[in-house]
Amino acid sequence: MTQIPETGRSWSAIQGELESAKAMDFSWRDGRMALYYYFLDDELMQVQKGAYNAYWMENGMAQRAFPSVKKLETEVIEMGLNLLQAPAGAAGTFTSGGSESIFLALKTARDWARAVKGIRSPNMVIPRTAHPTFDRAAHYLGIDVNRVPTTRNDFRADPAAMAERIDPNTILLVGSAPNYPFGVFDPIRDIAALAAERGLWMHVDACVGGFIAPFARKIGYDIPDFDFSVPGVTSISADLHKYGFAAKGASLMLLRDGALQKHQIFEFSNWERGTYISMTTQGTRPAGAIAAAWAVLNYLGDSGYQRNARIIMETKERLVAGINAITGLKVLEPHELCIFAYTSADPQIDIMAVADGMVSRRWFVGRMAEPPGVHLALNPSHEQTVTPYLEDLKAVVADVRARATKGKTIANTY
Ligand SMILES: *Cc1c(COP(=O)(O)O)cnc(C)c1O
User: For atom 12 of ligand 1, which residue has the closest CA?
Assistant: First the structure.
């Protein structure tokens, strides 16, 4: 078992070891990973790192000591609120990621329902396509989860089926913009109307879409309404560290009505050190993540985000056309933004064998369980890999077909 070394080692040796350790990883820089990172170019990475380093030591919890951190954070939140069409009086929180944003939205909704409606055994009704973090947060918070199957033909939440699952203890409905498995938008307008009619909290999970969908719409793509412009939407999660291109550890939880923050806040004074107040699940927070998000928003600007959205959407269109052109594969439709999945269209083609074949060619592959498929979440660095990806995919499918014809099975190599 590894121990702390007896005496310290040199930075140059350590640095070299870190660099060489990466040899065992899939390469994000070459665009060979289908998910987990968001890379535009080295210039933007310099901005992320420079801003993060400029606030390396500062602590995001210590806003009296570092008023500049508070100012940067406030500006990031306001940019998010404006982008997602929040009305006057709205409020937001900078969090460590989508998971924390969703946790805080559910926590605030739970305490609101407890205070306002006296609900003690809350439940929520969410589409089956909603992110697993809803169940994780609900598990911590003591909320029961009803996952409702989506409509079969378009993978969208089914508001009529959701309505049937609402009971007197239901506090919250959810819609995704878009959902992670299929990349389609739930009918936010219909779910929000249902929530408003029943007096429920409506959370929109725009962790994926929050910082790309508005820009895709501006350049002409048909993006359904999903933000605070839709009546009945109570809260939104939007990840800066996904399509906001911020450094990791950055997301927003936004509330239509800032007065609801009284159900979010944690305040404590029963110890010797005095009052402790926090709006998040964290204590110490990296101010670097706040500074990096602020810097990237200012560096890219509206036009930079539009440019990114265009690269991503056009890359997706090229990949989708290329995959559909390979006999035996088909892209699942619809998909409306930066995520899609493909599956087998031929009983001879085992899609998991195709995924294995891509892995053995050093592509990091996202796998879909239902239906079995390959899943991609695109970012601008995939622009350069469309051609090599499609060439490898074609070769792998031919290989899988040849083996299937010979009646051999393929070992699962990954
Ligand atoms: C990524 C994601 C989350 C969780 O966000 P993290 O930043 O990974 O914590 C929630 N919902 C959706 C739709 C996501 O894509």
Answer: 207
DSSP 223-278: ----STTSTT--EEEEETTTTT-PPSS-EEEEES-GGGGGGT-EEE--STT--EEE
Provide the pLDDT for residue 117: 98
> Sorting pLDDT into bands at 50, 70 and 90, what band is 253?
very high
CA of 122 relative to ligand 1 center, distance in Å: 23
Confidence grade of residue 414 (pLDDT, cut at 50, 70, 90): very low
Give the predicted TM-score (pTM) of the model.
0.96
Greatest pairwise CA separation for the chain in angstroms: 75
pLDDT classification of 413: cutoffs 50, 70, 90: very low
What φ, ψ does residue 312 adopt, rounded to 5°? -65, -45
Which residues make beta-bridge pairs with 123? 144, 170
* Dist CA 161 CA 199 (whole Å): 18
State the Cα–Cα distance between residues 285 and 257, nearest whole angstrom: 25
DSSP 17-83: HHHHHGGGS--TTTT-BSSS-----HHHHHHHHHHHHHTSS-BTT-TTT-HHHHHHHHHHHHHHHHH
Using CA positions, which residue lies closest to atom 6 of ligand 1?
Answer: 98
Specify whether the CB–CB gap between 235 and 109 falls below 8 A.
yes
pLDDT in tens, 359-372: 999 999 999 999 99
* Ligand 1 pocket test target in 99, 211, 241, 243 with most atoms within 8 Å of CB: 99
- Answer yes or no: is pLDDT of 212 > 60: yes
pLDDT digits (tens, 9 = 90+) for 50-92: 999 999 999 999 889 999 999 999 999 999 999 999 999 999 9
* DSSP 8-state assignment for residue 344: E
Alpha-carbon distance 383 to 381, whole Å?
Answer: 5
CB 180 near ligand 1, within 6 Å = yes
Which residue spans within 79-196 are E strands per DSSP? 91-95, 123-127, 144-148, 170-176
Q: Tokens 């210039």 — which residue?
A: 43
Query: What integer pLDDT is reported at residue 410 of this predicted model?
Result: 53
